[in-house]
Amino acid sequence: xxxxxxxxVISVMLGLTPLAHAQxxxxxxxxxxxxxxxxxxxxxARYEKQTGQNITLVFGSSGQFTTxxxxxxxxxxxxxxxxNFVYKLSDPGKTADRGKVYAIGRIGVFTPKGxxxxxxxxxxxxxxxxxxxxxxKLAIANPEHAPxxxxxxxxxxxxxxWSAVQSKLILGExxxxxxxxxLSGSAQVGIIAQSLAVAPAFADKGRxxxxxxKNHQPLIQRMVLIKPVSAAAQLFYDxxxxxxxxxxxxxxxxxxx
Length: 257
Prior knowledge:
Elements: H1 2-13, H2 18-22, E1 27-33, H3 37-51, E2 54-60, H4 62-70, E3 77-79, H5 83-90, E4 100-105, E5 107-112, H6 124-132, E6 138-141, H7 147-158, H8 162-165, E7 169-172, H9 175-184, E8 189-193, H10 194-197, H11 200-203, E9 206-210, E10 219-225, H12 231-240, H13 243-251
Parallel strand pairs: 1-2, 1-3, 6-7, 6-8
Antiparallel strand pairs: 3-10, 4-10, 5-8, 5-9
């Protein structure tokens, strides 16, 4: 008994639990909004190194994941870019509870190097580019199922530009794909997640300017455990809500709840 007690004490001192070691062989599948790509890859790598647990990350749009989970997709954790999608799963009893907010997202205007447009969060240059012919393509995530795309649509509507940009839009299936359209040159400008724009893959390849959060509904990002809940999934879920994990998310531009 003393042997097991001391093993437990040592594991707690290391920031782990014996259960984490017991669940090493179990795979935790996480459905995550694509704005989390760089931040969550860093977090999962840290967690795997610390615990030996195997974490599988699948990135996409929150709306599409919601549909997939309702249809029985084998995910254990859902990290949504919009808390309303979590509620669509919790209301019919697909989740352990209603989850918890892990971050608040932000959007802004990103222009790749060489673009004739400015990274202007006020959208004044975007409006001017529609008049002078500089704008050819604008990338956003599909507002039908991607929260970041839906907020981009709100911003464009509030600026009185939504109708004017219809013929210029190039829609990504998720915000990560929309961001990639700007890097590839398929679009001269994009309205993308700050968490992507500050990552090394983007930071030195263009300019980014935040859009005032008052111009769109907040991106309240909520995560939840999917039933049945495994011990391994519970441990990673708890880690994602910990202070060290929140520090990483903050570094990627997320506001903390």
